[in-house]
Task: inverse folding
């Protein structure tokens, strides 16, 4: 049984209007809203780790009451459903009120180990924050969110989790590429789990409206429950320390994205977690051939604002918008700028550590830095699979061991010599600096063999559309142990096949979901 204790709605004021219609909500943090029931809910995948983290047995999870709760068709004792209000900067512009337009919280539970988690259904129907949209989510994007949340966790990247994936039995109409082709698609709901889903945009909204008392209340709530170590500090000092910690956590998060080749795709400030978690899996993607300018998001194809290589800069910009919001509380901007500088300093340390680990250097050195820069120049100049390249690095005996990391045979032919020279320098440095017998083990722990390649997720989606949902759990099983060699499953570590190069869902995704 889940034990609910919903602090967000117990401690923060809510919207007195009980009706569920799109509107601007002021003077409140949340609105009561019931999920809209669905036709024929079916639990098609779940995460055993999240279930046990929450104290749910397999039988409890699969029970009719639980599946009904996970699909919006029923309530559990103690559950209280609501949506929260936030704003955000989207693609660099202030977008005003956004809010949980298709996410409905079921409440906060206390797990057996006394940790607390919020449960949230994504795609459970309209809320006061849906604007003109339907509050629903399609199966393809829900499979992607479910799988990636768990894959990221197993990779060791901070993230919201996913308990369950329910197919609703209803159809949802979407125009996948915004080109006038509406299509009915199967609908689904993911149950997400995190200590809190509070985003930068929550703070920005109250600041934008000049609602300083509410902004202060939300900061106090956040610090009290999620950053309690800062409570001994007072007033502005406490807020500045908290903001500095958000900057540090965000820097660590982005360094991890860069390590595993993850591209979020929509780093709007409403998609930035105050806890430094990866949140809101939309048109995200994984780097196949190493290209810092790549973004999976077709909606961003023009500006490539959220491309892989731009993620650190964008995170910093987003933190700047959070600082702007805090500056409305008469906090000296020099102090906020000083705390924001922690982003750069933390990121610099973290990314060096990440690269030292990926390349197998015991410590960071100038010489190592030159070799890393040279490697990235080579990787960028031709189409080379990032994941395979790094995984091979630990055990490669000759440059020819990198041949099948190349996407184009012709490029291998022309680039091989340059690689051979680089590999010579690299091997010499490793021989001189790293006498560790556990070097391969350490490198393998930084360089996953299995990542949730875009085409793998798409194959699971295609099968689910044909009625076979077993591929989702199969894929999740492999992604549970991304750093292990998994004999018999090498197929999941292969580079993107040619058919996937320009296929929708594999190399291009839109925000339509
Ligand atoms: P996103 O770009 O997915 O982070 O969403 C931006 C905003 O649009 C958030 O406020 C979402 O809740 C809202 N939104 C996205 N899709 C829908 C939908 N189908 N129905 C209602 N609101 C949505
Ligand atoms: Mg979002």
Result:
């Amino acid at each position: 049984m889940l034990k609910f204790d919903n602090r967000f709605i117990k401690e923060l004021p809510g919207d007195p209007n009980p009706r569920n219609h799109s509107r601007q909500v002021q003077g409140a943090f949340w609105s009561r809203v019931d999920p809209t029931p669905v036709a024929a809910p079916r639990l098609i995948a779940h995460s055993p780790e999240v279930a046990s983290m929450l104290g749910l047995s397999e039988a409890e999870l699969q029970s009719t009451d639980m599946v009904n709760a996970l699909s919006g068709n029923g309530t559990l004792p103690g559950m209280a459903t609501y949506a929260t209000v936030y704003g955000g900067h989207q693609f660099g512009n202030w977008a005003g009120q956004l809010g949980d337009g298709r996410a409905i919280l079921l409440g906060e539970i206390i797990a057996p180990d006394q940790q607390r988690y919020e449960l949230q259904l994504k795609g459970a129907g309209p809320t006061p924050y849906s604007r003109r949209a339907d509050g629903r989510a399609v199966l393809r994007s829900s499979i992607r969110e479910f799988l990636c949340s768990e894959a990221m966790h197993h990779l060791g990247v901070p993230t919201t989790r996913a308990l369950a994936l329910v197919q609703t039995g209803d159809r949802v109409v979407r125009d996948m590429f915004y080109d006038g082709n509406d299509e009915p698609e199967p609908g689904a709901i993911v149950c997400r789990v995190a200590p809190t889903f509070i985003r930068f945009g929550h703070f920005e909204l109250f600041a934008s409206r000049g609602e300083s008392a509410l902004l202060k209340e939300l900061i106090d709530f956040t610090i009290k429950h999620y950053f309690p170590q800062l409570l001994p500090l007072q007033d502005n000092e406490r807020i500045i320390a908290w903001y500095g910690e958000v900057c540090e956590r965000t820097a660590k998060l982005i360094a991890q994205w860069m390590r595993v080749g993850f591209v979020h795709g929509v780093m709007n400030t409403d998609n930035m977690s105050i806890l430094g978690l990866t949140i809101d899996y939309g048109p995200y993607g994984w780097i196949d051939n190493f290209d810092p300018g790549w973004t999976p998001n077709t909606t961003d194809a023009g500006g490539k604002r959220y491309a892989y290589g731009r993620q650190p800069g964008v995170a910093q910009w987003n933190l700047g918008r959070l600082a702007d919001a805090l500056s409305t509380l008469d906090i000296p901007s020099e102090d906020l700028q000083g705390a924001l500088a922690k982003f750069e300093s933390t990121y610099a340390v973290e990314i060096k550590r990440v690269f030292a680990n990926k390349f197998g250097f015991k410590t960071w050195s100038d010489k190592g830095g030159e070799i890393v820069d040279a490697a990235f120049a080579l990787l960028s100049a031709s189409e080379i699979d990032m994941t395979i390249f790094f995984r091979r690095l630990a055990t490669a005996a000759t440059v020819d061991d990198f041949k099948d990391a190349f996407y184009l045979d012709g490029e291998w032919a022309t680039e091989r010599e340059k690689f051979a020279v680089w590999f010579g320098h690299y091997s010499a440095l490793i021989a001189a600096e790293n006498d560790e017998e556990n070097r391969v083990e350490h490198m393998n722990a930084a360089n996953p063999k299995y990542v949730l390649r875009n085409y793998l997720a798409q194959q699971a989606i295609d099968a689910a559309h044909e009625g076979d949902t077993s591929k989702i759990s199969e894929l999740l099983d492999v992604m549970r142990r991304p750093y292990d060699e998994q004999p018999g499953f090498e197929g999941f570590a292969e580079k993107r096949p040619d058919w996937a190069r320009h296929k929708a869902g594999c190399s291009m995704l839109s925000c339509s979901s």
Summary: The longest strand covers residues 161-175. The mean pLDDT is 97.
